[in-house]
Amino acid sequence: MSAIKETEQDHGQHHHHKDLAHHFDTLEQQHDANTLGMWAFLLTEVLFFGGLFAAYTIYRYKYSAVFEEASNHLDIKLGAINTVILILSSLTMALAVRCSQTGSSLWTGRWLLITIGFGLMFLGVKYFEWKHDYHIHLMPGKDWSGKDWWHWQYAKQAKEMEAHSKGAEHSYPDRNTVPPDNDPKFGVKGIQESQQARLFFLLYFCMTSLHALHMLVGFVLIGIIAYFAYQGAYSPEYYSPVENIGLYWHFVDIVWIFLFPLLYLLGAHMGH
Amino acid sequence: MATVGLESKTFEKFPDIVGRDDDVNYLNHEHSVASWLITLDHKRIGLLYLVTITLMFLLGGALAGAIRLELLTPKGDFLAADTYNKAFTAHGIIMLFFFLIPSIPAVLGNFVLPLMIGAKDVAFPRLNLLSYYLYFAGSVIALTALLLGGVDTGWTFYTPFSSTYSNSYVVVMASGLFVVGFSSILTGLNFIITVHRMRCPGLTWFRLPLFIWAIYATSVVQLLGTPVIAVTLGLLGVERVLGVGIFDPRLGGDPILFQHLFWFYSHPAVYIMILPSLGVTSEVIATFSRKNVFGYHIIAFSSIAIAVFGFIVWAHHMFTTGMSPYAAMVFSLLTFSVAIPSGIKVFSWLATMYGGSISFDTPMIYAFGFLGLFTIGGLTGLFLSTLGTDIHLHDTYFIVAHFHYIMVGGAIMGYMAGIHFWWPKMTGRLYSEFWGKLSAGITFIGFNFTFFPQFILGYLGMPRRYYEYPDEFQVLNVFSTAGASILAIGYLMPLFYMIHSFFFGEKASSNPYGGSTLDWTNTTSPPSPHNFEKTPVVTEEPYHFHGKEAAVVSH
Q1: Would you state the pLDDT for residue B5?
Q2: Helix, strand or coil for residue A239?
Q3: What local confidence, expressed as pLDDT, does residue A163 receive?
Q4: Under an 8 A CB cutoff, do B242 and A142 touch?
């Protein structure tokens, strides 16, 4: 690269726009770099979640019957409500990006805050869902006991039978009254299936909590950007932070769009 | 950007002169501690990395010394079995995650990449500083794990030993690697965007120096591979803390899944270590042969090809796990195909030197060492990608020798070549050529003494990761330990003459080796805080050594 001519454009002489960082030459270059940076980051995120999706795929394939059964223990109704809430939040996020492009700072800030509101609603629903999961002993931690799984199946059958005979209301029995893990009634197959169901719930909690973690990070970032939006920091010339947080939020949304059918609809889809 | 006639053939290279003492450069324009610790300047961040990874290298090297000392005799008399396990684990983790992976990208990439593409900085300077501090935090966590008592799983963390049975500080260490992984991801991301969006006018993709192509390919691997190991280590932590069994067969999990996820990153990670060295070698060989590189395009594409192949060969680490023989055949075939782009590079370098006006400066001596050792390392890789021989050689010292030829003989030789090559640019000083060449020679000899006997040991069946061995292996082990002492001298020498050079070395001109890329032709030594006083405009492919062949000022 020996034949080199230098431009007249000196670093110091060039008048810089207030939003232009010193190492960029033009706002357009800065915008392109920021946007491409966010896309590259999302690519990393895809691979990050990808490890979990790969694990899910392997075990879903190996233990398909139990995974379908276990899927039925999740609340499709709450999952569906959350899906709608999250899609609405994506809409409000898209509106925020649009407003920042047209120069409406006030509405940019408002739509961003409404997005956080929907996000909080989602996590609220998730909280009650997890709480319910905890009460019916679906937590896959050290507390997991194969007999719960076995008992759950037993209780479900009983419930179905009672429903047929229009019997009294059925509640989950006290876990201390069910037979121990080594009870012959339980069987080797029962233990294996219990462990496989445990894997399903482990993946369910890992994936949904990693997703929730991304939402929490999103709240902080959206909050900061909403603050700057109210300060009038964004203009049709410079709105890439709003656009990038939008990309991030849509990514979080998309992850859920995959999680919902894989975790909640799996059993229903398979005709259970 | 003002439009500039790119067709202009005006030859305006930066004058090759020694700067004056009062010239403002990135080293002397600010002096406070804060101006170093929270700097956004890519050059200063590069130096921060240089100091930190050198310390990690010394620690990793000391552990290697302990391992070789233990293996001097057949009986375990220097380290206890458990301590030995912890020593080789710590050696592997520190050298791989805290030295080799950040070495060239984080030190030389940070320093040179913006200079080479005519940019004032990387695309995201604050993110760059964050990367450094993530690296620093990850190192602190990992060192904490070592001080608490270490980890005995080997750097591979194979389950279910690591998740269920090991009583060492696996979770602390895994968190350290998780954090340092994000440092690697963010550095890769930053470099990708920098190469895409920060090139100066006229610097098209096929005018990029080959080092940039190599760093770009490396960055793609960092961006796509590292998140997978992060989530895998996360799952390992979850499994250990909650007592669940995602990788534990006793609880319905699959330990082979861990190996797949682990090697999906850790094989490409080998290319994170070696690709930048290939890039450095291309620069050094072109510059010291005063000749346009042979096959520029194909060297550039072979970097990309190595990055792509790197992602589809991981299961060759798992041939003995009882995987499907058909899958094994496919992985074996794909592994062989990695030899093609690697071979192309080696032959292109040889062809570049052919008919060139070669000078034997220190960086070139290191690059020669690289060529020889990388070739041996690469060719022995073919023994291991052959399914039949792999069964015999798996988990023996043959493997240990093979990957040290690639990672130490290849990656570190390349790193040393690069450090010596860009040292005058980084510090504005020249180092002693005598001591430089001597250290390159000693390193080469010491390296071969250390690791060549290990090929034979492995072939004879000595397994890796044992602290004692049958008496008949002692002679070769003594060779290896003796070689390691020579190697240590080779690695310690630069520490002294480089530090001496930093303070007392002769002042370097802006282009002491007659380099042809923007970092040499258009910046002072050391560069000014914003690199370029005027944005350069490139009108030609790199490696045109017009009229410089005769007029090279070399030390």
Answers
A1: 37
A2: coil
A3: 59
A4: yes
Annotation: CATH topology of A27-135+195-269 = Four Helix Bundle (Hemerythrin (Met), subunit A) (1.20.120)
Q: Which chain B residue lies closest to A29 (C-alpha atoms)?
A: B197
Listed residue (B546, B416, B362, B394) closest to B462, CA to CA: B394
Residue in B with minimal Cα distance to A25: B1
Residue A8 DSSP label = E
- Chain A CB contacts of B8 under 8 Å are 5
Query: How far does Cα A18 stand from its chain's mean position?
Result: 36
Q: Which is it for the CA torsion A71, A75, A78, A84, positive or negative?
A: positive
d(CA B499, CA B502): 5
Res A167: pLDDT:
47
Closest in A1, A6, A203 to B540, CB measured: A1
| pLDDT-flagged residues of chain A (< 50) | 1-14, 167-170, 173, 272
8 Å CB contact of B227 and A44: yes
Binary contact (B516, A192; C-beta < 8 A): no
Closest CA to B137 of B101, B183, B99, B96: B183
Is residue B356's pLDDT more than 80?
yes
Mean pLDDT confidence for B264-275:
95
In this structure, what DSSP letter does residue B528 have? Answer: B
Residue pair B93/B87 in contact (Cβ under 8 Å)? The answer is: no
Residues 60-89 of A with CB under 8 A from B: 62-63
**Token duo for residue B230:** 């992060």
pTM of the full structure: 0.91
Instruction: Give the closest-approach CA distance of A18 to chain B in angstroms.
Output: 17
Question: In this structure, what are the phi and psi dihedrals at residue A5, rounded to the nearest 5 degrees?
Answer: -115, 145
Q: In this complex, do A2 and B251 lie within 8 Å of one another by their Cβ atoms?
A: no
CATH number at B480 reads 1.20.210.10
Digit-coded pLDDT (tens) for A76-105: 999 999 999 999 999 999 999 999 999 999
Question: Cβ of B517 and A43 within 8 Å?
Answer: no
The per-residue pLDDT for B24 is 87
- The long-range contacts involving B298-301, CB below 8 angstroms and separated by at least 24 positions, are B298/B344, B298/B348, B299/B210, B299/B213, B299/B344, B299/B345, B299/B348, B300/B206, B300/B208, B300/B210, B300/B213, B301/B341
Q: Is there a domain that residue B9 lies in?
A: no
- In Å, how far is B220's CA from the nearest CA of chain A? 9
Range of the domain at B512: 43-521
Residues of A in contact with B223 (CB under 8 A): 40, 43-44
> What count of Cα atoms within 13 Å lies in the side-chain half-sphere of residue B124?
25
- What is the per-residue pLDDT for A145? 66
